[in-house]
Write a structure and sequence with these properties.
- It is a single chain.
- The two termini are 14 Å apart.
- The longest helix has 17 residues.
- This protein has one domain: Hotdog Thioesterase (Thiol Ester Dehydrase, Chain A, Roll), CATH 3.10.129.10.
- The chain contains 3 helices and 8 strands; from the N terminus they run E-H-H-E-E-E-E-E-E-E-H.
- The protein has a 5-stranded antiparallel β-sheet with strand order 1-4-5-6-3, with helices on one face. A 3-stranded antiparallel β-sheet has the order 2-7-8.
- Keywords: Hydrolase.
- GO terms for molecular function: fatty acyl-CoA hydrolase activity.
- Belongs to the 4-hydroxybenzoyl-CoA thioesterase family.
Length: 148
């Protein structure tokens, strides 16, 4: 069964020199940073970024990360990080595809899961805050789950 996509977002990044190795390809660990850059751009656009999360008394740690490298990104290459939000009520689950911005060639695919944790006592929450859910539902292009 296909995953439901609640909303999509994308960000473009140019690979900087300090992210590549002697072969001028991106060191594998930097892909995590590219996911974070894209996720932060999405959260800013939703109006519920990490500053808001902290003000609301929550941390949102990444509890699961999966990366599959298909082709290397290279110094100076413009890459497009495409995101698809597949869960936002119990956690924040995002699927990513990193592509060459010009050709559309797939470079990497990834998935992250973040959960809500209360800052005052460290408890993990099994539902995301209602004001977060409202922010996502108001995002342009939000597609609700069809009633069965």
């Amino acid at each position: 069964m296909a995953k439901h996509i609640y909303c999509r977002h994308h960000t473009e990044i140019e690979v900087p020199f300090f992210d590549v190795d002697v072969m001028q390809i991106v060191w594998h660990g930097h892909y995590v940073k590219y996911l974070e850059i894209a996720r932060c751009a999405f959260l800013d656009e939703v109006g519920y970024n990490y500053t808001v999360m902290l003000e609301q008394g929550h941390a949102w740690p990444v509890v699961k990360l999966d990366l599959k490298y298909v082709r290397p990104a290279r110094f100076g290459q413009k890459i497009r990080v495409e995101m698809a939000v597949t869960e936002y009520e119990s956690c924040l689950r995002i699927d990513y595809i990193l592509r060459d911005a010009e050709s559309g060639t797939k470079l990497t695919q990834a998935h992250t899961t973040q959960v809500v944790q209360r800052l005052d006592n460290g408890e993990m929450q099994f539902q995301t805050p209602e004001n977060w859910q409202k922010a996502v539902r108001q995002f342009k292009g939000f597609t609700p789950l069809a009633n069965g």
